[in-house]
Amino acid sequence: MSIGGRVTTVSSNGEYSFTKPNRESITLLTGLGVEGDVHAGVTVKHRSRVAQDPTQPNLRQVHLIHEELFDEVRTAGFEVHPGDLGENVTTSGIDLLGLPTGTLLHLGSEAVVEVTGLRNPCLQIDLFQDGLLKQVVGRDDEGAIVRKAGIMSVVRTGGVVRPGDTVTVKLPDGPHRPLERV
Question: What is the mean pLDDT of residues 55-79?
Fold first, then answer.
């Protein structure tokens, strides 16, 4: 295990809206997600996923974004703050997008989430700020889609998470599988 970074902000919202207000702390519930958050549950809660199949397992219980993304989009003229893109946990000092599927992230002294995949950004991002979607979804030199709007996870061990908590990374046994959209 290695210290990967820290939690800078935590956010949650009990109602469907694109952004999530920042909180002093959030409580992660094993197998469910963030206590009181609209996306918490054993089965899918994102409306587009519910419409497809409401019995799908919820692989998107906790959404994490690296704070460095905000600096990146700021250079392109966009102003984005923690919680604005609907994430629950904003981190710094850790390459979330480079983690393999199945990585365990220890958030603070209690909570543990398992990384399930990449967030698949939707058109709502352009409704929030026109043109922002192109900043968080692009293509690499080979033409493959690159998603930068954070990662999704499920709660393996519940606990309280606060700004300033450390993020400790435990990689899964190899071979590692790169993150795919979930």
Answer: 95
